[in-house]
Amino acid sequence: METLLAFTFAHIRGSVPAENPFFEHPILNGPYDQPNRHWELDSTGQPTQKIVESRRCAEFITPIPKPRKRKGQGEQASLILDEGQGLTSAQQQYAASIINELRAEVDAWRALPSPSDWLVTPETTRLLQHWRHHEFNTFRPFFCQVEAVETAIWLTEVAPKRESYKNKYLKHLIDANKEANPELLRLALKLATGAGKTIVALHRAMYLAEAHPTTRVLLTTFSDILANALRTKLRLLIGNKPRLGEQIEVLAMQHVGLRLYDSNLAAKRGKPKIATNAKVKWLIEEASAAVPDHKFSLRFLLSEWEQVIDAWQLKTWEDYRDVARLGRRTRLRETQRELLWSIFSRVLKELSDSGEMTEAELFTRLAKHYAEGASPPFDFAVVDEAQDVSIAELRCLAAMAGGTPNGLFFAGDTGQRIFQQPFSWKSVGVDVRGRSSGLKVNYRTSHQIRMQADRLLNPEISDVDGNVEDRRGTVSVFNGPAPQIVESATEAEEQSVVAGWLKKRIEEGLRPDEMVIFVRSTAQLPRAELAAGLVKLPCKALGMHMETTMGSLTVCTMHLAKGLEFRAAAVMACDEDVLPLQERMETATDQSEVEDIYNTERQLLYVACTRARDCLLLTSAGTPSEFLRDLGG
Fold first, then answer.
1. Cα(244)–Cα(15) distance, integer angstroms
2. Under a CB-based contact definition with an 8 Å cutoff, are residues 452 and 631 in contact?
3. pLDDT of residue 469
4. What is the model's pLDDT at position 93?
5. Measuring CA to CA, which residue among 285, 273, 256, 425 is closest to residue 343?
């Protein structure tokens, strides 16, 4: 939540002025205690170099380097955050007072000595006492993490019991919700990389199960790999409360769909037969050949199918004629659409005749089933890495749990979208405007790694619904060595560089299982394994169950990086034809697709870089990727 931001830091590209205390020592507060100091900023957001002995109020001033003067350009309009409505334009006001007042209420409530005055359930009382008084031997919660959950507890358990709180804070949240999406309360959580999205999602699932003992909670994400990681972490959190494990179901969305279809629709419609991508491609090729006098390439037809026809489950000519082809810059006249439909209608008929369906159709059928009144199997759904959930999956989740107050909870980061094309959540019944919060304290990655990785992304990322995520202002809670970028002439030279870097980390006391080598795809895995072999380090390619092996260096592709963290990471094979991957670039059919491929490839490298806690190395052989030059500033 916005209430939790203790301090901000700039997104910087370029050099830091000499003798500038703010940039040399940006972190004033420890991660485990309430912030009590901050750097003063002037009215333009520039540091005054003065330390103020108090916590910063929620003003959302983001200090940025003074821009270079550009001819013909006026002063840049500042960005402001509105009160509960998300990031907005300068025409709106951001009233920070309610955030500061809420923070003060939570502080006063936290200071109450007697648990009988806390106005919370016995389970929550024990949880709060554990956080506040337990002597942690190893990892302990950060203050910002505790404050985040304390604020959620205060709003859900304490505020409803006092009329003054209900009339002020809860009314504010309800009004914000009504303006964005009347009569359907949903909450979403947007956090910075390494800020603890997954941990918050896990705690949210546990809280829902404890607060509603007779309910079922779905904890889901977009892949088996991440679902396995969630399952492992949930077991650690549950500890000696096996009942919670019986309430919480952890599944990847694909398995959610198959299981629900089997239990709800298979009796009437038969077991689902999912058409493979290869089968769909063959059907499109056959249909294309059967329709004369068109000049659409196979690549265009495949992307139009994946991003429009199948994604939005268009079944009639009228549906296709009228659909807004968001993100598709190749404009199509109605006659062109009609010709295309003559191809896609053949594909749909072939799938229907063979009794096969796509995953998108499976989820669409389930969404219709629950929207028509069928009893949903879950009362609540918590979605991790929500930025990579598909259109049909999101529509199904909305049909299952969207009618329950606080039934849907999403944790995600737009900057880490690497699998899905952008689309409008609002159009499928999930409107998070006014109910989205952001955490901007990074606990996983050092200040130096985070700052350099941020150069890969735009400081602002917007979605199709107009929500803008301002990535500036994110901070890390610890420092470390600067990342290294080494451009080698040959693969052998690159492997030697990586081997030397690994050897040095071992000499510094790191274990092999605390290190990882990432590559873009499986084709580059042998390069990583050869580098590990030069220093005789045992290495293991990461499997689907996301389990590292004690004593072994992990080697894996960037797509498997989600959910992982290591003390040291080497990102190899950052070559010109690998990042962005040339094979993907050749599939682009219009400028929009080229831009999206560039963006997702950047985000993929960003995900890999931000798995490193302390040390990061990036290498290339031959001509380096342009992304390395961006990282190097």
1. 51
2. yes
3. 61
4. 38
5. 285
> What is the Cα–Cα distance from 466 to 82, expressed in whole angstroms?
14
Contact call for residues 584 and 597 (beta carbons, < 8 A): yes
pLDDT of residue 562: 78
Rounded to the nearest 5°, which phi and psi values hold at 356? -105, 160
- The residue ranges of the chain whose pLDDT is under 70 are 1-20, 22-24, 44-45, 59-96, 136-140, 176-196, 326-330, 413-424, 427, 429, 431-440, 459-473, 543-548, 589-590, 592, 633
pLDDT the model gives residue 553: 92
Residue-wise pLDDT for 543-567, tens only, equals 655 566 778 899 999 988 877 889 9
The SS3 assignment for 111 reads: coil
Dmax (CA) for the chain in angstroms is: 80
Amino acid at position 572, single letter:
M
For residue 619, which of 496, 455, 453, 452 has the smallest C-alpha distance? 496
Question: What confidence score (pLDDT) does residue 568 get?
Answer: 95
Separation between Cα atoms, residue 524 and residue 355, nearest integer Å:
39
Which amino acid, 227?
A: A
CA-closest candidate to residue 546, choices 531, 566, 529, 530: 566
DSSP code of 90?
A: T
C-alpha gyration radius of the chain: 26
Nearest to 151 by CA among 2, 312, 303: 2
Asked if 515 contacts 554 with a C-beta cutoff of 8 angstroms, the reply is yes
User: Which tokens go with 48?
Assistant: 């005054």
Which two tokens mark 223? 């892949």
Q: Look at residue 7 in the predicted model and tell me its pLDDT.
A: 23
CA–CA separation, 541 and 465 (whole Å): 39
Q: Are 189 and 197 in contact (CB under 8 A)?
A: yes
Report yes or no: 273 and 355 within 8 Å, Cβ to Cβ. Answer: yes
* Residue pair 245/235 in contact by the 8 Å Cβ criterion: yes
pLDDT digits (tens, 9 = 90+) for 343-380: 999 999 999 999 999 999 999 999 999 999 999 999 99
What residue type is assigned to position 601 of the chain? E
Three-state DSSP class for residue 371 = helix
What is the reported pLDDT for 478? 80
Q: How many CA atoms lie within 13 A of 596 on its CB side?
A: 21
| Four-CA torsion 519, 524, 525, 530, nearest 10 degrees | -110
User: What's the pLDDT score for residue 138?
Assistant: 55
| Cβ atoms of residues 152 and 443 within 8 Å | no
